[in-house]
Write a structure and sequence with these properties.
The protein is an alpha/beta fold. The protein has 2 domains: 13-181, Rossmann fold, CATH 3.40.50.1970; 186-383, Dehydroquinate synthase-like, alpha domain. 50% of the residues lie in helices and 11% in strands. The protein has helices at residues 23-29, 47-57, 76-87, 99-114, 186-205, 211-233, 238-258, 262-274, 278-293, 298-307, 317-334, 351-360, 362-367, 374-383; strands at residues 13-15, 35-40, 64-69, 92-97, 123-124, 134-138, 150-155, 160-165, 173-176. Strands 1-9-6-4-2-3 form a 6-stranded parallel β-sheet, sandwiched between helices. It has a 3-stranded mixed β-sheet with strand order 5-8-7. Strand 7 and strand 8 form a beta hairpin. The longest helix is centred in the middle third of the chain and has 23 residues, at 211-233. The protein is globular and about 60 Å long.
Length: 385
């Protein structure tokens, strides 16, 4: 008998080439007049900032830009951004960029209305009331942060990453314009795309997956497997970029509803302690975690292999499942990812301490289809070494 399940998400999703041009209209639709635009630091120095200004200026709309967001953002940026929003009496938050910018924007929106500090709201359901209306605009096909209820930050003083998780972080609008991903260079295209694949694989194999979330997760796997190589090596291919962004969106929807698994528990300390980018950390760990999890979900890993284009006819469930690991490793190789956790200063004697921190990232471990011990984690870090 199937358990009861629920399904939630962003209130509205708009997808299509050129959809950024509708931004001002959507802001007005939400009853706002003065948005705070939260951007990646690098994006704030490109023509995209001018393009957004042109869209908003054309409607006579005043706005404030907060363009200080780094990859793996420290939590202090959320507090500073909220202060900027309140000081300037902004009534809506637009997050544009990768997951770091969108996560920070979501956090800013709830701090601005609930007051206090970002650390007050870390954990699950700690945000008491809705935030400012928010619109998320991804410029990478990766995190799916435009449709999730999570914001993840680095706490530098503790050398760890922690998340803010609340339904109040869901955006009022996810605005996805594939043309914004056309200028993303090959390396970040690969790393963010493989991050999306990780989200799709983990949410599909999560013990909290439902028939509805599985539909999105499995289609995400197929779209990413079919299009990521093209996006990395022929980045101007708009058809591939469209399908890749759709795959990232579907993976985000799957993640939001089924949760992720042990890859994220293991990757958080790599980001918090060694500065390994989130997408790359997940990529380096994904094949080893998949191989570990296989006995707990053979049929699902067989599905993943088939979705990634592997021929599973005539194979046992176990044989087919192992093809999923092979397919992921081949995709990683074809995308030019040739790194290990050793490259970031991790030493073998650090594995135990990393595992201790990973064990505290409890929710993904609870979703994992196979129970994982500290010794198992150390073995996986050794495989990624």
């Amino acid at each position: 008998m199937r358990k009861i399940f629920s399904f939630t998400g962003a209130k509205k999703i708009v997808f299509g080439n050129g959809s950024l041009l509708t931004l001002a209209a959507h802001i007005k639709e939400l009853g706002a007049k003065k948005p705070l635009v939260v951007m990646d630091k690098n994006l704030a120095q490109t023509g995209l900032k001018d393009k957004i200004a042109e869209v908003l200026d054309s409607e006579g709309m005043k706005f404030v830009v907060y363009g200080k967001i780094d990859p793996e953002p420290p939590i202090e940026l959320a507090d500073e951004g909220a202060s900027v929003a309140m000081k300037n009496k902004c009534d809506l938050v637009v997050g544009i960029g990768g997951g770091s910018a969108m996560d920070t924007a979501k956090a800013i929106s709830v701090i601005a209305t609930n007051k206090g500090s970002a650390v007050d709201y870390l954990g699950l359901n700690k945000v008491p009331a809705p935030g400012l209306p928010k619109i998320m605009i991804p410029t990478t096909a990766g995190t799916g942060a435009e449709v999730t209820f999570t914001a993840v930050f680095v706490r530098k003083n503790l050398k760890k990453k922690e998340g803010m998780n609340s339904p109040h972080l869901y955006p009022e609008l996810a605005l996805l314009d594939p043309t914004l991903t056309l200028t993303l260079p090959p390396a970040p295209t690969a790393q963010t795309g493989l991050d999306a694949l990780c989200h799709a694989v983990e949410s599909y194999t999560s013990i909290n997956a439902s028939p509805l979330s599985e539909m999105f997760s499995l289609e995400a796997i197929a779209l990413i497997a079919e299009n990521l190589r093209t996006c990395v090596h022929d980045g101007k291919n708009i058809a591939a970029r469209e399908r890749m962004l759709l795959g990232s969106l579907y993976a985000g929807i799957g993640l939001a509803n089924a949760g992720v698994t042990a890859v994220h528990s293991l990757s958080y300390p790599l980001g918090g302690q060694y500065g390994v980018g989130h997408g790359l950390a997940n990529t380096l760990l994904l094949p080893a975690v998949m191989a570990f999890n296989l006995p707990g979900a053979l049929e699902k890993f067989s599905d993943i292999a088939e979705a990634m284009g592997e021929c599973i006819d005539g194979l046992s469930a176990r044989e087919a499942a192992y093809l999923a690991v092979d397919a992921v490793e081949a995709l990683i190789d074809d995308c030019g990812i040739d790194a290990s956790i050793r490259d970031f200063g991790v030493k073998e004697e650090n594995f135990g301490a990393l595992a201790d921190v990973a064990m505290t990232v409890a929710r993904p471990l609870e979703n994992n289809p196979r129970k994982m011990t500290k010794e198992d984690m150390i073995a996986i870090y050794a495989q990624a070494y």
